[in-house]
Amino acid sequence: MTYAEIPGTPLFDGRAARRGYALNRLCYSFNDAANRAEFVRDEDAYCARYALNEEQREAVRARNVLQLIAAGGNVYYLAKFAGIFGLDVQDLGAQQTGMSKDEFKAMLAAYAH
Amino acid sequence: MAQILGGVMTSHVPAIGRAIHKGLQDDPYWQPFFAGFKPVHEWLAQALPDVVVVFYNDHGLNFFLDKMPTFSIGAAPEYRNADEGWGIPQVPAFPGEQDLSWHLIESLVEDEFDVTTCQEMLVDHAFTLPMALLWPDQTWPVKVVPICINTVQFPLPTAARCWKLGQAVGRAVRAWDSDAKVMVLGTGGLSHQLDGERAGFINKEFDLQFMDSLVSDNPAWATQFSVRDLVEKAGTQGIELLMWLATRGALGDSVEEIHRNYHIPISNTAAGLMLLAPA
Q: Which of A6, A90, B97, B158 is a plausible cystine mate for B143, CB 3.0–4.6 Å?
C-alpha cells in the first residue's frame, strides 16, 4: 500500500522497513550503553558488523537525519543514534529544516498564537 | 465487578523526563505544563485507583522491527524501564496486575482482537513519564496493565480500530470479577512531528477540535479520518492521539470533563492533558 504524499513528512511503511532494516537494527542496538561505547570506539567496525549498505554508511558518517531517513532509517531508532552525540529532538528538527536551534525553537513557540 | 473511575490523557515526550530529573517543574518554560497536573493530583487523592490500564506506544525499546505487534498487552509480574539510548533515568519497577492482564487478554481475543501477550516487557518513556506526572514521588500506589499500540511501522491500526479496542477494554474491565477501582491512562500527542522537512509542525486548531470532540456527543469524531490524514493534520508523532481515542473509548458513552490543559510547546510538542470521568 502506498500513501498519498504529505510534503516533508516521511511515513515509515513496509518499503522503508525493508530498505532500512540493517540501519535500524544498528540504531536499536544503541539501547545498550556498551554498544554505544563500542560504536564510538570503532565506528567502521561497528557499521561493518551490522552490514550497512553504502548509502546507510555514508548517512551515518554524515550524521545527517534526512539522509538517514532516505536510507530507510526510522526516527525512533535514529533518536538512539542521535543520543550518542547528545542531540535532542530539537537539534534533529533544526538540522532537518535548515534552521539554527534557536530559530527552530522560536518557530515552535510561535504555534502557540 | 470492577469499576472505571476515569481516564487521563497526557503527552509523554522524553524532555519531560529531563525536566523532572533536573527539578525544572517551576521553571518558566515548564511551569505551564507541570502546573496543569495539580487538579489531576487532587482527583487521584480522592479517587484512589487500585489499577491503571495504560495505552501507550513503544519507541523501539521493547519492540524492534523483527516482530512488530499491532496491539500487545503486558502480562508480567512487574515492568521496568531501561536506558533508551540517551541514558534516561531509571524509575522504580511497576507492579503488574496479572489477573486483569489475563482477563483482558481472554476478553479481547473472544471479542476478535488478536493481541500479542507479553510476560516480559520493558516499558519506555511513553509509560514511565505519564506515571511520574501522575505520581511525582514515584512510589506507585497502583498496579498496572500496559497496552501497547504500534505507531512505529505502517500500516498502523486505524483510528476506528483503536476506538473499538478501547471500547472492548472498557467492557472487559467493567465485567472483571473484582472490587478493584480502575483508571485508564492514554499517553502521547498531541500534534508534533520529529522527522522530515516538516519537523516541528504543530496544529493547534486541530488539537483543540480533537480535545473538544472527546467530550462531545460524537467522541469518535476522529475515527472519520484515515491514519494518513491524521498524520497530515497532527504530524507523524501526533498520530499518538490513537492512545487518547482508545482511552476515551474505554470510558463508555458519556463522560464528564473534570480538567484539561493545553500548552505549546514542550520540546517539539503541543502538550495536551485531559481528565475525564464516566458520567
A: B97
